[in-house]
Design brief:
single chain, alpha+beta, Alpha-Beta Plaits, 2 domains, 10-stranded antiparallel beta sheet, 6-stranded mixed beta sheet, elongated
Length: 339
């Protein structure tokens, strides 16, 4: 019985200041107590012996996953490497102190070759959710607003038992339990404001949520794969945007020609404050765009909360290769171009 620190842990800690560590061990109250104590220790790294403490920017509480406990650490740019490298030893010390003598500490698993299967998931039903931001809001937010996060998470299905639920952080992936999803998302957003969530079996289809688009003011949602009815997925995205219209500056759903990487939305709409960069099948129009257009465009519809939406044709007409595709895009441009 030993507490092992996996190879590659030190290298990980010397690299990107934001890391996700996985502690594989038994479950029980003593493990929770040990890891909570260790997280408290991590928050104190670099804070002794100086007038101006340079501790980590953020350390999460331990989070359960099907394969172990996750701890996310954002060391910031100023914490010395010698302090970062103490992380696994502090975890091991607290585990041993609490009587946990069989554990493995290391990086969260890296994404593997199976992700190449997602390249074939096309076309993609994609929704963009641009959260509201006041006139004095920073250009780059700390994280998407809570209402936008809650809305985006509703896109992930709860009835796909054959799917894995995965959090993807850069090149690392972590399998998540649905009951722990909200806590894991909150912890990750507090580190650097962005992440990708996938519900997929890597063969028949999947659902994706991207947190942190629009300079962290919004999120994206997607669905694709051989077993996914893309037009119906677009209609479901429209219903979701309608339901969350109060939290959104604007939203849209459609198929973008260059949007070919299922986990990650493209084109990246980082600076789109008023409207998407390309007209799509469905749009919840921003107040700024309505002013620029001189009022609601022809064919638009007012929602019960007073917001205005515009749907151009049926989603089937926007599928790649459909004979009506060019006409749909032309009509959308006509209606959404300020006069």
């Amino acid at each position: 019985m030993t507490i092992d620190i996996r190879r590659g842990t030190a290298q990980l800690l010397r690299g990107d200041p934001t890391v996700t560590l996985l502690v594989r061990t038994s479950t029980g109250p003593e493990v929770t107590r040990a890891l909570r104590a260790a997280c408290a220790d991590l928050r104190e790294l670099g804070t002794s012996g100086g007038d101006e403490p340079e501790g980590p920017k953020y350390v999460s509480e331990p989070m359960r996953s099907p394969i172990g406990s996750l701890i996310m650490v954002d060391s910031g740019e100023d914490l010395p490497l010698s302090e970062r490298e103490r992380t696994p030893d502090l975890l091991a010390h607290r585990l041993d102190e609490h009587g946990v003598t069989d554990a493995e500490i290391g990086p969260a698993p890296a994404i593997g070759d199976r992700y190449t299967a997602l390249d074939a998931f096309s076309p993609i039903a994609r929704g963009w959710l641009r959260g509201r931001a006041g006139p004095d809001s920073p250009r780059v937010a700390d994280r998407p607003g809570a209402e936008v996060v809650d809305l985006a998470l509703r896109w992930l299905p709860s009835d796909q038992d054959e799917h894995q639920l995965l959090g993807v952080f850069g090149s690392a992936e972590v399998e998540l339990a649905r009951q722990d999803l909200a806590a894991a998302v909150e912890a990750k957003l507090r580190t650097d404001g962005g992440m990708t969530l996938l519900s997929t079996d890597f063969s028949t289809g999947g659902f994706a949520v991207g947190m942190g688009d629009f300079f962290r003011h919004g999120a994206t949602i997607g669905a694709a794969g051989p077993a996914v009815d893309v037009p119906e997925a677009l209609r479901a995205q429209r219903e979701l945007i309608r339901a969350g219209s109060g939290a959104l500056a604007w939203g849209c759903a459609g198929i973008a020609e260059r949007d070919r990487l299922f986990p990650y939305a493209h084109p990246h709409q980082a600076s789109a404050k008023v409207r998407p960069t390309r007209p799509l099948w469905y749009q919840l129009l921003s107040e700024e765009l309505l002013v620029a257009l001189g009022g609601p465009p022809e064919g638009s519809r007012m929602l019960p909360d007073g917001r205005v939406e515009l749907t151009i044709g049926e989603p089937e007409q926007w599928l790649p290769g459909h004979p009506d595709g060019a006409a749909m895009l032309r009509r959308a441009r006509e209606l959404l171009s300020p006069g």
